DNA sequence: AGCATAACCGGACTTTACCCCGCTTACGTA
DNA sequence: TACGTAAGCGGGGTAAAGTCCGGTTATGCT
């Protein structure tokens, strides 16, 4: 909800969004959610979204820039809510617990988040964009980086380590686990991935 | 080179490819390489590829199924050659060295491979495909899995660990490192990623 | 060799992401 | 409150991905 348009990457909004534009974005996102629920992501077309919203095609594209942009916006939206839990919710996810515990439960929460938003997350990938589309999951990466800073790891490239961990967390879901598995048995997937993350973090962070 | 068409996922070819089809695939791959070198991946269109090859559009699509399929084929091609080095080349990459050393140098070789084929690798991603397009880099994953099996890691989900490591290896390049950085200073990227991989593996595999 | 059949070929056709540009509307200033 | 202007709007236009199907060619069998 904070961003002005698809080019506004910086957080401090340089200029407030015009009222009608904000209204339209809201409406577009809501309509997109409806259509995805009804038809599935692969049948969400830009034209149909525009028509059902009662807006012009041009508007849709100015808002989101590209088809993948819609899904990124949707994901951002969900991620923002999720991130609030993480930043100010109860321990061990929120502050108060030892950083290692927070890291572990963060990963577990994110696995659940990604399983839930799996369809949208896949559609937000875009092979044509030269730069990682909107730089994938920067919030997640930043949070992991922050927690790593509070753990004593000796000399290490913490920024890179955070990137690697983020990839090890997101990758198995987005790229490597078959969609069939996920749809048929999301529970089983979680039962495997959650301990996997736990184990990975323990291995990396032990002295 | 081995696969009959985009639906043939199994390795043992059920039926040999017809001679003209094989010739056309060869020719298409070669032409695609030329055009990418001349124009860049984003300007490689299916129509242009067909015309320049002197073939019909239908042929191109039957061969590769989708635009991303072309890039997957190109990547497969390169990966196969790379994999031979790994399976039968000299140590520490090839067999003969201790598995931990092989794992480390494998990652380093793969980083170089991905930096080199970066453009194609990105284009091989496809957000619309419900299943991880051809299941991304299965060869790499299998090799890592094999090496992990030769290292004493105590009780662990080795298959999942291999997936996580593959993601931690590929992810930073495909998703998180900006394309600008890569193009301007591939050397610097390597200088950072190579030690990063070394460090990650040491952390995970120490007793 | 001759034939049946399955695979392959090509290019016209459809769908859809994305661009363009003249018109309209909201907001800062006087 | 009136005005100038920058931002927003909409829908027709383009190009490229992906589909279809009638015609063609390779291959196995006799």
Plain-language structure description:
Chains A, B: Residues 45-64 bind DNA. Chains A, B: One of its GO terms (molecular function) is DNA-binding transcription factor activity. Chains A, B: Keywords: DNA-binding. Two copies of one chain form a homodimer. The first copy, chain A, has helices at 19-39, 46-53, 57-64, 67-88, 99-116, 118-123, 138-149, 158-176, 179-184, 186-205. Chain A is mainly α. Chain A is built from ten helices and no strands. Chain A folds into two domains: 18-65, Arc Repressor Mutant, subunit A (Orthogonal Bundle); 82-207, no CATH class.
In short:
2 copies of one chain form a homodimer. With 207 residues, chain A is mostly helical.
Along the chain, the helix and strand elements of chain A come as HHHHHHHHHH
End-to-end separation of chain A: 42 Å
Q: Extract low-pLDDT stretches of chain A.
A: 1-13
What percentage of residues of chain A falls in helices of 4 or more residues?
A: 55-70%
Alpha-carbon Rg of chain A, integer:
18 Å
Largest sheet of chain A: none
CA-based shape of chain A? elongated
DSSP summary: helix tally of chain A: 10
Number of strands of chain A: 0
Oligomer: homodimer
Protein name (chains A, B): TetR family transcriptional regulator
Organism (chains A, B): Planotetraspora thailandica
Keywords (chains A, B): DNA-binding
Pfam family, one (chains A, B): TetR_N
């Amino acid at each position: 909800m904070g961003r002005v348009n698809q080019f506004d990457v910086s957080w401090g909004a340089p200029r407030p969004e015009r009222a009608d534009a904000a209204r339209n974005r809201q409406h577009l996102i809501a309509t997109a959610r409806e259509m995805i629920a009804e038809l599935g992501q692969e049948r969400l077309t830009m034209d149909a979204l525009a028509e059902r919203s009662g807006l012009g095609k041009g508007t849709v594209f100015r808002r989101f820039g590209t088809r993948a942009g819609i899904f990124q916006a949707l994901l951002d939206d969900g991620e923002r809510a999720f991130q609030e839990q993480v930043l100010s919710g109860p321990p061990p996810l929120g502050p108060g617990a030892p950083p290692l515990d927070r890291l572990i439960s963060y990963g577990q929460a994110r696995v659940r988040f990604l399983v839930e938003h799996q369809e949208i997350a896949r559609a937000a990938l875009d092979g044509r964009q030269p730069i990682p589309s909107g730089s994938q999951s920067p919030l997640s990466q930043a949070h992991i980086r922050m927690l790593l800073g509070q753990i004593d790891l000796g000399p290490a490239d913490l920024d890179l380590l955070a990137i690697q961990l983020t990839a090890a967390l997101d990758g198995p879901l987005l790229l490597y686990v078959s969609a069939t598995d996920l749809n048929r048995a999301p529970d089983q997937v979680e039962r495997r991935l959650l301990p996997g993350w736990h184990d990975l973090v323990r291995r990396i962070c032990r002295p």
